[in-house]
Amino acid sequence: MNATRTMTALATILAMGATAATAADFKMKIGISTPEGYSYNQGLMAFEKAVEEGSDGTIEVTVFPSSQLGGEAEMARNVQLGTLEAAVVSTSNISPFHPEFSALSVPYMFKSIECAMHVTNGPVGEALKTALQDKTRIETLGYYTFGYRQLFNTKRPINSVADVAGLNIRIPPDKYLERTWTALGASPIPLPFSELFPALQQGVVDGDANPIASIQQFKWYEVVDNVAMTNVAVGMAVFVINGDFMGKLPEDLQALVRQAAADSVAVNIAADAAATEAAMAFLTEQGVQFTTPDLAEFRTAAQPVLDAAAEEFGQDMIDAIGAAQDDC
Fold first, then answer.
1. Does 160 fall in a domain?
2. How many domains does the chain have?
């Protein structure tokens, strides 16, 4: 009987030892507002796989989608506090910590998504990263995109700036989007994102500017007939991590995390492009009409908005953003 108890106790100790040996030394929770399958999430899935495999399980990564850990502003604060290791949040939601991040979401600031990445991967992006880390101990691991904001509406095809006049366009709380639609002749209507679908149905608003893939995902095509490829703005987000958490990692694991994050950006960009292409095909089948107006006319009409951005952020920063796009 005693021998049996001894063997049982030994087996328990061995099992506990095996569990301890395989347990992760570092656990990284990542919060994100978007649902599974979104381009941000696909980038994070690639990051999770690379980090866990590259660290032989020393780092355990868990992604919490669909705002399970709170809204983006709350997650950004928690990354600063260290109660959350990492998150992907829009530039507008990281800007309270460093206002210059808002320059990345100003309409018609970028020629293209590729050009936006030239900017964030160059001196401008590095300066923003350094300033944020110095102020808050939040490290920027990379810049994600959700693609272009394209104008969609329930009223008519948009072939020129003149066609925008008189439309009621829903906006988030963003002063530069508000100024842009005003400059283009529309009436900006502040409205929570969650209220957009019924507002379109009821005629409270005529349209909005969001990614093509979102028109499919949120079923706005059920009430929207027209999409204009106006490239109003490139949607940008930052993949951020708590600096103290990074400091606890050995240098080789810090390098692994940073490289995995850099690689995940390419996954995000490719996933967004694929989702956009698939959504355009789907929406065309649903009878949605696409138009391609002259973007030069839209940029010219929006110039007062860019002038206001230069006044707020400094002409030097705006010039640096422009110079970074010379070769793209």
1. yes
2. 2
Largest interatomic CA distance in the chain: 92
Type and span of the H or E element at 59: strand 59-64
Q: In what order do the strands lie in the sheet with 150-153?
A: 187-190, 168-171, 207-210, 150-153, 226-228, 289-291
Q: Quote the percentage of the chain above a pLDDT of 70.
A: 93
Please provide the DSSP assignment of 28-40 as one string: EEEEESSPTTSHH
Angle at which helices 123-136 and 315-323 pack, to 10 degrees?
A: 130
- pLDDT tens-digit map of 268-309: 999 999 999 999 999 999 999 999 999 999 999 999 999 999
In a domain, 157, yes or no: yes
97 and 51 in one domain? yes
Tell me, what DSSP letter sits at residue 155?
A: S
Task: Please determine, for residue 310, whether its predicted confidence score (pLDDT) is greater than 50.
Answer: yes
Name the residue type at position 86.
Answer: A
Give the position of tokens 């002749």.
185
- Could you give the strand order of the β-sheet that contains 59-64, starting from the edge strand earlier in sequence? 59-64, 26-32, 86-90, 234-242, 138-148
Evaluate whether residue 78 is within a structural domain: yes
What pLDDT is stored for residue 92 in this prediction? 86
Side chain identity at residue 184, one-letter code: L
